[in-house]
Every structure is written in structure tokens, then in C-alpha cells.
Amino acid sequence: MTAPILTAALLTFCVGCTTGPFAILSEDQPTGLEPGSNEWWAHQASLPAGARQRCYKGKNWPVQPRPTGPKQQLTQAFHSAHYWPLPYICQDRAIVKQMVSLQETNGWTEESTLFARHFKPDNTLSVPGELHLIDILEVNPLKYRTVYIQSTYNETIDAARMANVQSVIQEVTQGQEEVPVVVRRARDYSRPANEVNIINDLYTGSIPTPRLGRGGGSGTSTGLPVTGP
Description:
This protein is mainly alpha-helical and about 230 residues long. It has 7 helices and 5 strands.
């Protein structure tokens, strides 16, 4: 009786290593798939790597969040350990690249915006506004070469400013480029150039006149170095 039992146990172990723990069953209860089939292995390959969290005597083991589903098969666990941190590092890199790309796009959008301080009261571009527009047309990469105008929430004013900007673009590019002009909602967190100039003038005018203090100690009245004998 011992030999048949050992043979059955060995057969079950070998088959289990090949097709998983449900090899003795005709159907995997959690998935409803036939153990060892291509569909079953495809499902096993989708299970996350690492230890599973379980509750024991009212405590979660381990404490940090972990998967709670079925464990990986031996083959899947070996594959995850052998190629770690792939493929998860690819997902992490993709998320970081997506965030960096979003920040880059927002930065170029902010730098390509003509704010209210760039326009005169008659809704034409001021000299700083024209210089900023030229920078957008000459410095910005081609995919970020879109001119944005801060919205005034007044369709008439926005239309007048857009028409003036388009006219300046046609004049600068001599009609050789089609540059999109878009009105966007934005906030101006910077200062107008004249305000910055006033602040700098006040700062320069408040600098006290340099005064040389009287130095103590011995020395020559001529300020020449004293040489030894």
C-alpha cells in the first residue's frame, strides 16, 4: 500500500508543479477555467507579484497594503523574482514621463500667453507685448508655437485683441507661417514692466551713501606700507 500512495503523491506533486495547485480538479473554482489550459495560465500571469495580505487574530499581515487575491504559481513567482523590477518599473517610468510632459506643456502654455499687461488700453499690443510675441514666434519649439491670450471675459475685447495679435503675426512672419491664436482663462502672477522699473528705481534711490569709518590703531598717515630696516 505504501508504494501506490507514494506514486500517487509523486504524480500529484509533479502535475501540480506543471499545472498548478488545482491539477486534481477539472475546474478552477475561483476562475472557472480548466487548470493547465492556456486561458488558466494567462489568468495566473496577470496576478500581482509579492506576498498576500491576510487577517489573523484581528490584525493584517503585513500591515502595509498588499494584494489579497490568490498567490502566484511557482513558475510565475520565479519569473517575477528573476526579472524584478520589470515590468513594473516601466509603468512607473511611464507615469513619471506623463507628469513631466504635463508640467512641460503647462510651462510652455504659461510662457506663450499674452496677459493684460501686454496690451494698451486700445487693445493693441504694447512694446513689451510685441517683444514677447516675437519671442514666442522665434524661440518656442514648433509643437509649442501657439499664442495664447488671457481672457477678459468680454467677447468684444477678446476679439479685438486676437485680431491685433494675428495682424502682428502676419507682419512679423510676412504671411509665411500659420500660428494658432487661442483665448484662454489664466491668471497673471507677474508684474508689469513699468511697476518693476519703479520698484528698482525706489530701491536704487534708497541706497545710502557709502561712508568710510575712522580706523584705529597705529599706522602711517600717508597710507603707505611700512617697510622694515
